[in-house]
Recover the amino acids of this structure.
């Protein structure tokens, strides 16, 4: 079956995902007593060859920020924070005011925003405990965070609550962005280069 999928143009990554779903379904059937053994356990999945991911140079990052700033200052600051801290997009969207320590120059990263799927919607979920961390920042990242906090205060007409999201959809800071919608906005404001 896997060879047939490959001949029909499926990528190794797609075949491996399908194999995982099939294997889990057959394991459930075995545990439920429907079948005696899981025949997919002996099947060879295609190898997944991963290349080195491409990373932007410092000049390319600055060019991206400059291009985004022409279209959307908030997105430019999001790119600045991501580039300067290494945060994932979901972690950036999960940051709340209480997670930011401007005096120490630190972000406490323990939560992320993700799409919980149909019927669940956007959720704030804890990152893996092994991935909790305090991320230092300085310089341009601090300035970007301060500008975003000021935008939040302007939207909230003065005071941000500690549980307000740094990047939010509403004036009160209680509604986080959807990760996919934020990605679309990033791509559009960065001139299609994100």
């Amino acid at each position: 079956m896997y060879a047939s999928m490959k001949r029909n143009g499926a990528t190794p990554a797609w075949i491996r995902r399908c194999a995982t779903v099939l294997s889990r379904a057959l394991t459930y059937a075995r545990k439920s007593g429907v079948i005696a053994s899981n025949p997919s356990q002996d099947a060879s999945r295609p190898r997944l060859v991963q290349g080195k991911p491409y990373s932007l140079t410092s000049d390319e990052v600055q060019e991206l920020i400059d291009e985004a700033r022409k279209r959307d200052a908030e997105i430019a600051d999001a790119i600045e924070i991501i580039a300067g801290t290494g945060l994932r997009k979901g972690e950036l969207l999960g940051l709340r005011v209480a997670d930011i320590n401007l005096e120490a120059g630190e972000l406490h990263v323990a939560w992320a925003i993700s799409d919980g799927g149909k019927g669940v919607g956007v959720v704030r979920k804890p990152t893996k405990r092994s991935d909790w961390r305090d991320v230092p920042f300085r310089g341009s990242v601090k300035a970007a965070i301060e500008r975003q906090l000021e935008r939040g205060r302007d939207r909230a007409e003065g005071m941000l609550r500690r549980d307000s999201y740094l990047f939010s959809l509403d004036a009160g800071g209680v509604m986080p962005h959807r990760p996919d919608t934020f990605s679309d906005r990033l791509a559009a404001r960065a001139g299609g280069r994100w």
Notes: The chain has a mean pLDDT of 88.
